[in-house]
TrEMBL record:
Residue ranges with Polar residues bias: 7-22
Protein name: Fe2OG dioxygenase domain-containing protein
Boundaries of every Fe2OG dioxygenase domain copy: 229-329
An example Gene Ontology biological process: gibberellin biosynthetic process
Species lineage: Eukaryota, Viridiplantae, Streptophyta, Embryophyta, Tracheophyta
Length: 386
């Protein structure tokens, strides 16, 4: 049965009901309601949230042994330590693309403030959150379980996303303005906190880009220059507890179509990576940020560095939160590997593309999974758009 989302403005809840396009007859009593406050009290979760058993297997507690990189070496300019760190990063990226960084320069107080603002957003009544809901095909705004886009295998979470242009300046605080425009004047401080958080993420992203360039043996400033005027995306994830946590996911298995992801997860844990043929947990560290390679960086490295399948479990008893910064190039930048990266006679793995076109594909035509990039090129060649 296909399900389509509908807003019920009287009850201020998001109602899922059988789609009018569905071929099966409509059953009037088949209503399920998404409201994170209500839904977590239900004994049986709505079937739209139940994932196929093939996806649910393998919920191990085994941990990923990703490297922990101390980024203070970058500021200190300790070239020997940088070379060793780059080697660890290279090994991780050739295998699964995940590593963690400490001494990253983002103040703990700022991270704590960003989590406080997650609470202020998601504790709002559903009617307020829906007033900031993401528009079809767009990225910014509130989303409840992505039910505006999908009708099955829904993620057990609420998200709030917004864009950060690397070239924005303090006389035009875009994030503050965005928060005020969709949630009201009282969200000025929320906007200010995220403006600062994104600036810190952006600075950090450029440092990591340097380390990645060193690890690939190319001009160390190449990716810093490529990404310095990018259009990145910030997302706050709020995962309510779920009584049937074994039947659903907070975030289903997917690879990130973006370039680099910088994630902070709270102490509840739940992030897992599919590496070495199994699902492995990424242990939360409050002082660390989790970094992973996305599809676009995989293409920039001609497939050397892996954009790996990952997912987030939900907790039976506790709310889980995460802060995710998706680093992206400016949308019209052509994504292609540097000539000097290709060894003699090495074939190009992917055709050139712009981030704007891949972004549009994932926003309007495709639900990101492990095969996003391949599907994107197939779609483009069949529609002659590349
Ligand atoms: O919350 C997490 O740990 C993972 C989130 C994630 O993968 C995403 O938002 O794309």
């Amino acid at each position: 049965m296909q399900m389509a989302p509908l807003m019920n403005s009287n009850t201020s809840t998001l109602v899922l009901h059988p789609s009018s396009q569905a071929e099966e007859p409509k059953k009037e009593n088949m209503l399920s309601i998404f409201d994170s406050n209500m839904i977590q009290k239900q004994v049986n979760i709505p079937k739209e949230f139940i994932w196929p058993s093939i996806d649910l297997v393998n919920t191990t507690q085994e941990e990923l042994k990703e490297p922990l990189i101390d980024l203070s070496i970058m500021k200190a300019g300790d070239e020997k330590a940088i070379a060793s760190a780059a080697e660890l990063v290279r090994k991780a990226c050739l295998n699964h693309g995940f590593f963690q960084v400490i001494n990253h320069g983002v103040e703990q107080d700022l991270i704590n403030d960003a989590y406080c603002e997650v609470d202020s957003i998601f504790k709002q009544p559903i009617s307020k959150k829906l007033s900031a809901k993401r528009v079809a095909g767009g990225i910014s705004g509130y989303s409840g379980a992505h039910a505006d886009r999908y009708s099955s295998k829904l993620p057990w979470k609420e998200t709030f996303s917004f864009v950060y242009n690397h070239h924005q300046n303090s006389s035009n605080p875009q994030i503050v303005n965005y928060f005020k425009s969709v949630l009201g004047e009282e969200f000025q401080n929320t906007g200010l906190v995220y403006e600062k958080y994104c600036e810190a993420m952006n600075e950090l992203a450029l440092v990591i880009m340097e380390l990645l360039a060193i690890s690939l043996g190319i001009d160390r400033l190449h990716y810093r220059r490529f990404f310095q005027d990018g259009d990145s995306i910030m997302r706050c994830n709020y995962y309510p507890p779920c009584k049937s946590s074994g039947l659903t996911f907070g975030t289903g298995p997917h690879s990130d179509p973006t370039s680099l992801t910088i994630l902070h997860q709270d102490q509840v844990g739940g992030l897992q990576v599919f590496a070495n043929h199994k699902w492995l947990s990424v242990r939360p560290r409050s002082d660390a940020l989790v970094i992973n390679i996305g599809d676009t960086f995989m293409a920039l490295s001609n497939g050397r560095y892996k954009s790996c399948l990952h997912r987030a479990l939900v907790n039976k008893y506790r709310v889980r939160k995460s802060l995710v910064f998706f680093v992206c190039p400016r949308e019209d930048k052509v994504v292609k590997p540097l000539e000097s990266l290709l060894s003699k006679n090495e074939a190009r793995k992917y055709p050139d593309f712009t981030w704007a076109s891949l972004f549009e594909f994932t926003q309007k035509h495709y639900r990101a999974d492990v095969a996003t990039l391949q599907s994107f090129f197939q779609w483009h060649s069949s529609s002659n758009l590349l």
